């Protein structure tokens, strides 16, 4: 069975930073870490904007998000603190997805940086976009020096229906000429018009004392 993914991200510049991080670090993340089926729970902060906060959760499968233990803390049963913080912060993305490429890999937790590329693709173009990711885009980018892993997911619920995660050795990895050469091909150029509502963000692993 394909591994699942939950991604949630906010810009919390309009919220007290101390309270936001206390909420995430002492309640929200620990609740999910204790939930059966959650493999790892990692917080990330924007490289260009430190008030961008994104959390990635590798799951045994997407079905975990419909399990009784998760429903006890999520969706309609969010805590009062969660409802208050989520109501104040700006939602950037929330995605519930199945891993298509390679299918069964989870975060290696060995890098300090991550690049996320999320988008919406119309249903008629989705098969071709997924084929491009499978046959060309992910294989080429995964070979770029400094790219530790490259994964692609199809989202069944949330703000975007496609998302790719790239664990990278440094924030500069995905800005290098080698990366650009691997990424930009004739097939890529043909696919670009189908990639809507694009969110591309480079992140560093969150450290509480550096937030």
Characteristic key phrases:
single chain, 211 residues, alpha+beta, Alpha-Beta Plaits, eight-stranded antiparallel beta barrel, 35% strand, globular
How does this structure look, described?
By secondary structure, the chain is an alpha+beta fold. It has a single domain (4-210), classed as Alpha-Beta Plaits. Helices cover 28% and strands 35% of the residues. It is built from six helices and eight strands. The chain has helices at residues 17-33, 68-71, 80-88, 126-142, 177-183, 186-191, and strands at 4-11, 38-46, 52-59, 90-101, 113-120, 147-158, 162-168, 196-205. The longest helix has 17 residues, at 17-33. The model has no long low-confidence stretch (mean pLDDT 96).
SSE topology:
Blueprint: E1 4-11, H1 17-33, E2 38-46, E3 52-59, H2 68-71, H3 80-88, E4 90-101, E5 113-120, H4 126-142, E6 147-158, E7 162-168, H5 177-183, H6 186-191, E8 196-205
Antiparallel strand pairs: 1-3, 1-4, 2-3, 2-8, 4-6, 5-7, 5-8, 6-7
């Amino acid at each position: 069975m394909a591994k699942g993914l939950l991604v949630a991200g906010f810009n919390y510049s309009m919220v007290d930073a101390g309270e936001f991080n206390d909420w995430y670090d002492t309640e929200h993340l620990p609740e999910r870490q204790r939930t059966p089926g959650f493999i790892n729970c990692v917080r990330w902060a924007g490289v260009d904007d430190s008030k961008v906060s994104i959390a990635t959760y590798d799951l045994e499968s997407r079905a975990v998000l419909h399990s009784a233990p998760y429903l006890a803390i999520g969706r309609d049963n969010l805590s009062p603190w969660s409802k208050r913080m989520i109501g104040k912060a700006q939602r950037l993305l929330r995605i519930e997805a199945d891993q298509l490429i390679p299918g069964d890999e989870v975060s290696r937790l060995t890098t300090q940086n991550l690049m996320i590329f999320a988008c919406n693709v119309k249903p008629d173009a989705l098969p071709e976009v997924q084929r491009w990711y499978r046959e060309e885009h992910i294989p080429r980018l995964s070979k770029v020096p400094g790219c530790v892993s490259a994964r692609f997911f199809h989202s069944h619920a949330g703000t975007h229906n496609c998302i790719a995660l790239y664990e990278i050795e440094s924030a500069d990895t995905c800005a290098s000429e080698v990366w650009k050469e691997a990424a930009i091909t004739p097939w890529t150029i043909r696919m670009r018009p189908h990639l809507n509502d694009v969110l591309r963000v480079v992140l560093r692993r969150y450290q509480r004392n550096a937030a």
